[in-house]
Amino acid sequence: MSSSSRALAQLAVPRSGAALLQSSSQVPRLFIQSSRKTVAARPAFGSLQGPVSRQFRRGYADQAAPAPQPPKKRRFRTLRWAWRLGYLSAIAGVAYIGYGIYEDRHPEPQTEPDPTKKTLVILGTGWGSVSLLKRLDTENYNVIVISPRNYFLFTPLLPSCTTGTIEHRSIMEPIRTILRSKKASVRFYEAEASSIDPDRKVVRIFDNSEVKGDMTETEVPYDMLVVGVGAENATFGIPGVREHSCFLKEIGDAQRIRKRIMDCVETAAFKDQSPEEIDRLMHMVVVGGGPTGVEFAGELQDFFEEDIKKLVPEISDRFRVTLIEALPNVLPSFSKQLIEYTESTFKEEKINIHTKTMVKKVTDKTVEAVATRPDGTKETIVFPYGLLVWATGNAVRPVVQDLMQRIPAQKNSRRGLAVNEYLVVQGARDIWAVGDCAVAGYAPTAQVASQEGNFLARLFNNMARTEALENKIAELSGSLNLQPGNTAEISREIEEYERQLRRIKDVKPFHYSHQGSLAYIGSEKAVADVTWFNGNVAAAGGLTYLFWRSAYISMCFSTRNRLLVINDWLKSKLFGRDLSRE
Question: Cα separation of 45 and 195, whole Å?
């Protein structure tokens, strides 16, 4: 038998089970190696078409079509997206803060003053003056700033400095740092203005620092003058107020109050101190029911509840806070429901409120006041005290009084410099007034002063652009037709400048837009009377307290101030307030 016949005979013989499995395992390789156009690889011999081929098909199906897996459930998709969004927001926030810090530390070079331009003198570094400087284009003027303090103070957080919740330098911004960020250089003199001569257009200033040089008094000429010196504390002629009270307007006042609080505590804890003297020393009296007085009373109560009671428990039950207000209620600029909420919160905090009560006399240990009862009768009350804080009333500064005497139109003004709708001092030329020293028909608040400063910045920028275009038009008109061949070109330039002049919008008179009022009332609660569209929204409680904090953080002048204030809040929350006496 030939070899081909033997091969055919071997294929015809049935194979064993092992041989069948071996052949079935080899078949899928045929399918893999076959052409894509081939549907199935057919065996060359008819003897494989029986049960062996069915086994081949079963083996291929098992390998080529595995059982479908159930779809995976997507859990916590919202949390994952929230995490990604928070992560990206944190990166963006850090980048923004870093860019702001870099800009503060690396300001651009400034241009030198142009002697041909007008000299603008600004008195003061308060809310009105700094708001003006922030938006003023200093390239249009030779700007000079004069103030006895070389920093801007964020006054809404000043009550928090009295108890150590916030350190005083966290709410101070050096004025030279502010001026360094302007395009054109601005000169600053740390001095106090003693008089203003509107006829000669000069301001007389003197050096009031502890270190004196050869020159301590001089004059500064001006073309335009902005008076923003603010106001001083009013005592209403009550004897003993200035000698025995602590005011709350400047950083020095807050530091003085902080030292006095700790003096009262340590003196009350002195060995063998009498109970009557302990009661007097631990009684803190606040005169003035406005936002400043209310916030200070709330901060003081928090200080004793959260810190003093833990560290000086033997005298903590003697502590008392009394708030005296001459009007029928506290926070008179707020809505009635917020006033009632504040009074009820103070009652829970055991802060005594005496409304319709007028102080008549102050000694080194007592406050004598007259209260009006509901039936109209008068009652004299004597309050022993360890600390007296006077947080009410504004008085005109001497430099403003001197200027009012020099202007005949100001003879009937009593509360400050009367101004018109453009904040120009009545009866004077080239003199403007902003802030507490100006009488514009609005309450003397930081919000009003800030808007007045912004208004003057728009006005002065507009005036500079208008004057520059008018000078160019007058110069071109003067050279028109003097030389042959330039008439058409000069006419086109004049038309272009006139077109630019028409596009400059006239600044409308100043109008104050009230954005709302905020006040902290202690126990991590606050009240807010916020303007919303055509009405007001009144809110109070813990969430309003968070809004109060976020609003003040956004209002801080610089990134540096914001970071420092947040750090102080966290520090006082984690470690408590510092009780050391400076």
Answer: 123
